């Protein structure tokens, strides 16, 4: 017996596009409840506590979170079906917190269910662009696949585009990126990062890229007081503390270092602390090693800071790994 | 046979007696593979013989993707490149002791109507008959020219 199978009977052909139900205008919606349910406040609070300063950035992130929440409510009411474009651009000088904030952003997008897994894949040109013909596309796609379900963070994105070399393989990576940013908006969010001027130039030559970016966030440099706050927070996290004189020395260090080349905001602070810890360890070893107390292990003294070449020679400490 | 398997659809791997899986159903299966820590492969062939075990690999096994959308992306790329081939997704378990595919299912068929297999009977010594099958599509046409 041969049984006819009508293609219409097959389940895959039965999910006819249901016309979206039109809900009455007075259908209630509790945004407050939605907000609580998403647990986004937790991430926003953490952002507030763990990051010193950055007021305009925090404000923008709160606005974006509100926008996404309202958008989600609108989807529930069938007022929209489109996934909003969420690709972003973070501009700012080195060490202003772009990578750190991108990680938080991935978490926020995850809690609001705009990305499914919430991980962050951070790459630069070398991870995307190949060395020979036919190498770039698979490389770029590999990275895109890893990032799907999460956030792809492209640091110094403008190096993808090398106008001086018309056969540069970076262009190929850009084209694949553009395609995926458009067609797979449900699957990943791309965040481009870098210095403002270079990024602006990059967008000028790549209008397709600019038009796909919904949010531009510009990270301000930190002031002296903020850098001190950041230093104290980093020290606390590492279970170290400045003696009162050392704190004064460190403030002076920052004042001087800020004027020198290659100043990298919070990263310079972190590196300065790392070097101070190194000098402290050497000092403890050189001294009376038998009669130390716990307090000695915790405390950074002014000489641990003033030994820096910032004070001695008026130039940043030479250290290849920590050159910033 | 005709009732459970209309036409001559090949039935290899899991789910092959069901209707073709939708993309969402494929994603759900891949989600399961990923949750088990299996590496997911996309493979294709135009030789439907059941003993054709090793299909061509589409790219490398995807060891460190986190989301099924990435696999579906490659499935679609493969569909674009090989619309007239069978394509399957395989979940490979690399755990010591398994080291084998744990799940495999078809995600693309070359045509609506699959012509099926010819049964070949060979008379042997005495009155013994030996049986074998031959896919109609492989009888005359070489690889990459079948199902068109
Ligand atoms: N506002 C802040 N409060 C506390 N720590 C901060 C803050 N901003 C940055 N940091 C710390 O400074 C370091 C550098 O920050 P991050 O890597 O995010 O900067 P970046 O802008 O990505 O720099 P680059 O452009 O050089 O990649 C990190 O260790 C981070 O924890
Ligand atoms: Mg960074």
What is the fold's blueprint, element by element?
The complex is a heterodimer of chains A (324) and B (148).
Chain A: H1 31-38, H2 40-50, H3 55-76, E1 88-92, H4 98-111, E2 120-123, H5 125-128, H6 136-147, E3 151-155, H7 170-183, E4 189-194, H8 196-205, H9 207-211, E5 215-219, H10 224-237, E6 241-242, H11 244-259, H12 265-286, H13 294-298, E7 299-300, H14 302-306, H15 309-312
Parallel strand pairs in A: 1-4, 1-5, 2-3, 3-4, 6-7
Helix pairs in contact in A: 2-3, 2-4, 6-7, 10-11, 10-12
Chain B: H1 23-35, E1 39-45, E2 56-57, H2 68-81, E3 86-93, E4 100-108, E5 117-123, E6 129-135, H3 136-140
Antiparallel strand pairs in B: 1-2, 1-3, 3-4, 5-6
Helix pairs in contact in B: 1-2
The complex binds adenosine-5'-triphosphate (ATP) and magnesium ion.
Index terms:
heterodimer, A: alpha/beta, five-stranded parallel β-sheet, two-stranded parallel ribbon, globular, disordered N terminus, B: 148 residues, alpha+beta, four-stranded antiparallel β-sheet, 3 helices, 6 strands, binds adenosine-5'-triphosphate, binds magnesium ion
Could you please describe the fold and organization of this structure?
The complex is a heterodimer of chains A (324) and B (148). In chain A, 31% of the residues are buried. Chain A is built from 15 helices and 7 strands. Helices cover 51% and strands 9% of the residues of chain A. In chain A, the strands form 2 sheets. A 5-stranded parallel β-sheet of chain A has the order 2-3-4-1-5. A two-stranded parallel sheet of chain A has the order 6-7. By secondary structure, chain B is α+β, with helices and mostly antiparallel strands. Chain B is built from 3 helices and 6 strands. Chain B has helices at 23-35, 68-81, 136-140, and strands spanning 39-45, 56-57, 86-93, 100-108, 117-123, 129-135. A 4-stranded antiparallel β-sheet of chain B has the order 2-1-3-4, covered by helices on one side. In chain B, strands 5-6 form a two-stranded antiparallel sheet. Chains A and B meet through helix 6 of A and helix 2 of B. Adenosine-5'-triphosphate (ATP) binds next to helix 4, helix 10 and helix 12 of chain A. Residues 98-99, 155 of chain A line the site of magnesium ion.
């Amino acid at each position: 017996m041969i049984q006819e199978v009508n293609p219409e009977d097959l389940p895959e052909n039965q999910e006819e596009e249901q016309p979206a139900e039109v809900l009455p205008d007075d259908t209630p919606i509790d945004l407050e409840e939605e907000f609580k349910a998403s647990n986004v406040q937790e991430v926003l609070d953490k952002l507030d506590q763990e990051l010193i300063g950055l007021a305009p950035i925090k404000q923008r992130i709160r606005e974006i979170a509100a926008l996404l929440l309202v958008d989600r409510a609108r989807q529930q009411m069938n007022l929209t079906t489109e996934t909003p474009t969420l690709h972003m651009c973070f501009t700012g000088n080195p060490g202003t917190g772009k990578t750190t904030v991108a990680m938080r952003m991935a978490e926020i997008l995850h809690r609001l269910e705009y990305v499914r897994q919430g991980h962050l894949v951070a790459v630069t040109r070398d991870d995307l662009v190949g060395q020979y013909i036919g190498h770039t596309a698979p490389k770029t796609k590999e990275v895109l696949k890893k990032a799907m379900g999460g956030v792809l963070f492209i640091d110094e994105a403008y190096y993808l585009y090398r106008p001086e070399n018309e056969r540069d393989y970076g262009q190929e990576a850009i084209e694949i990126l553009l395609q995926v940013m458009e067609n797979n908006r449900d699957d990943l969010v791309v965040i481009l990062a870098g210095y403002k001027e270079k990024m602006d130039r990059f967008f000028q030559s790549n209008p397709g890229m600019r038009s796909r970016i919904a949010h531009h966030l510009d990270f301000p440099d930190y002031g002296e007081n903020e850098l001190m706050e950041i230093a104290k927070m980093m020290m606390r996290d590492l279970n170290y503390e400045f003696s009162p004189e050392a704190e004064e020395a460190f403030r002076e260090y920052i004042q001087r270092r800020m004027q020198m080349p290659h100043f990298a905001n919070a990263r310079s602070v972190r590196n300065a602390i790392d070097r101070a810890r190194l000098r402290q360890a050497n000092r403890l070893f050189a001294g009376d090693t038998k009669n130390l107390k716990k307090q000695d292990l915790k405390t950074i003294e002014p000489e641990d800071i003033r030994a820096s070449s910032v004070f001695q020679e008026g130039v940043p400490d030479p250290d290849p790994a920590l050159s910033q | 046979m005709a009732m459970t398997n209309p036409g001559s659809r090949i039935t290899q791997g899991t789910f092959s007696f069901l209707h073709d899986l939708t993309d969402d159903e494929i994603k759900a299966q891949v989600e399961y593979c990923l949750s088990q820590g299996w590496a997911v492969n996309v493979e294709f062939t135009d030789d439907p013989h059941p003993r054709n075990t090793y299909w061509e690999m589409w790219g490398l096994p995807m060891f460190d993707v986190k989301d099924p959308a990435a696999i579906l992306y490659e499935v679609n790329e493969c569909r674009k490149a090989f619309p007239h081939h069978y394509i399957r997704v395989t979940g490979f378990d690399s755990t010591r002791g398994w080291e084998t595919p744990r799940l495999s299912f078809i995600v693309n068929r070359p045509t609506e109507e699959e012509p099926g297999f010819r049964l070949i009977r060979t008379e042997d010594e005495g009155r013994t008959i030996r049986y074998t099958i031959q896919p109609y599509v492989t009888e005359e046409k070489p690889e990459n020219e079948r199902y068109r």
